[in-house]
Amino acid sequence: MLHQKLLKLKENIKALKKVAVAFSGGVDSTFLLKVCIDELGSDNVLAVTAHSQAITNQEFIEAQTLANLLKARQIIIQLNELDDPFITNNPPERCYYCKKQIFNKFIATAKEQGYNFVLEGSNFSDKDDFRPGMRAIKELGVLSPLKDAGLTKDEIRQLSKEMGLPTWNKPSYACLFSRFPYGEKITPEKLKRVAQAETILRENGFGQFRVRSHSDLARIEVLPEDIDKFFDQPFRNKIVNEFKKIGFTYITLDLSGYRSGSMNEQLKEEDMEAWKN
Which of 46, 104, 161, 247 has its CA 20 to 30 A from that of 22? Predict the structure, then answer.
């Protein structure tokens, strides 16, 4: 079944002949880029990467390193998302406006370079989540071949491991804008603080986590099996002190643990349904 999905993916990509891939260096886009290069050849594949305010510098560097590893031709697009008040003011549909900005630039770049199709890495596991950005992707005619092939996140990790991709067990990242509750204005200073806080957790041995920023309060989400680490008082004091140094006043641990899209829990069901695809 899994390799039938992979075969379908390869057939769909072959039919496109020449593609540009929205490449972030994450699990999904790395797998997609690899399959595109294998099926079409590196001359017919362009990796387009955003230098965005929504990602850390570490993630941006990793995307360049991975593109080099795959021997992909890569073009970097500079973004200034916070110039757009529809993004800065952080409404529930923020992701729609953000994806519109990003993919309009990706499409323009692809056409300039002679690539008629732009591909992105959403997978079948994303289909039921609240993702307003998917509406923008559909409206712009961007293709989602992993989703169309029915490949889930776990299946993509399994296939990535079989292919020897270093991203097969890479933690899931998300844009830094998702760390803020809807309605709270996003600023460069707040983004920097969240990025610093997550670096602190990464350097202290955590793999999958989020730091959600509620004004001057940091809400830490870690995997359930990692929650016990905070029961050690010296360790807990160390994290608290380091978070306070970067500007947080209050530091809390979310006892529900890490989960993707936890900021969506504040939304009403009818609001989420209106944006589902």
Answer: 161
